[in-house]
Amino acid sequence: MSRFKYLVNCVECGDGNAINDMKNTARQITRETFLKWVDRASLAPIERSLGYERWPAHGLTMAGDWHIAYYRGKFQGVPAVFFVWSGIEYIFTEGK
C-alpha cells in the first residue's frame, strides 16, 4: 500500500466545491486507521507547525488532542484521508 502524503489544507486549496464534496461524503475514522494510510514523514512537519510535541512528557501531542477528528473520503475524485483541526481540513492523498 502506498502511503498518502500531505497535499493541501482547505485554506490553501482554492476549490471550495471539492472540499465540500469531500466533507459531505467522508466517513470518520480513528487516528490509528488514519496513521495506517499516511506517510508519517509528511505528517510530522504539520504536527510541529500546529504546536504539538513529539512526546507526551514534553506537552500536548496531536494523538492526545481529543479535539481533532480524522476522516476517509475522496478529494477531487481521488481517495484521501484528512483531519480537521480548528475547522481546517488537512488533506492527504497518494503521491504523484
What are the main properties of this structure?
96 residues; alpha+beta; five-stranded antiparallel beta sheet
Please characterize this protein's 3D structure.
- The protein has one domain (4-94).
- It is built from four helices and five strands; from the N terminus they run βααβααβββ.
- It has helices at residues 10-13, 16-25, 31-37, 40-49; strands at 4-9, 27-29, 69-75, 78-85, 88-94.
- It has a five-stranded antiparallel β-sheet with strand order 1-5-4-3-2, with helices on both faces.
- The protein is globular.
- The protein is 32% helix and 32% strand.
Care to give the gist of this entry?
By secondary structure, the chain is α+β, with helices and mostly antiparallel strands. The protein has four helices and five strands, in the order βααβααβββ.
* End-to-end distance: 14 Å
Number of helical elements = 4
Shape: globular
Share in helix:
25-40%
Proportion of residues in extended strands: 25-35%
Q: SS-based structural class? A: alpha+beta
Largest β-sheet summary: 5 strands, antiparallel
Task: Please compute the radius of gyration using only Cα atoms.
Answer: 13 Å
SS elements, strand count:
5
Poorly predicted tracts of residues: none
Return the average pLDDT rounded to an integer.
Answer: 93
Topology:
Blueprint: E1 4-9, H1 10-13, H2 16-25, E2 27-29, H3 31-37, H4 40-49, E3 69-75, E4 78-85, E5 88-94
Antiparallel strand pairs: 1-5, 2-3, 3-4, 4-5
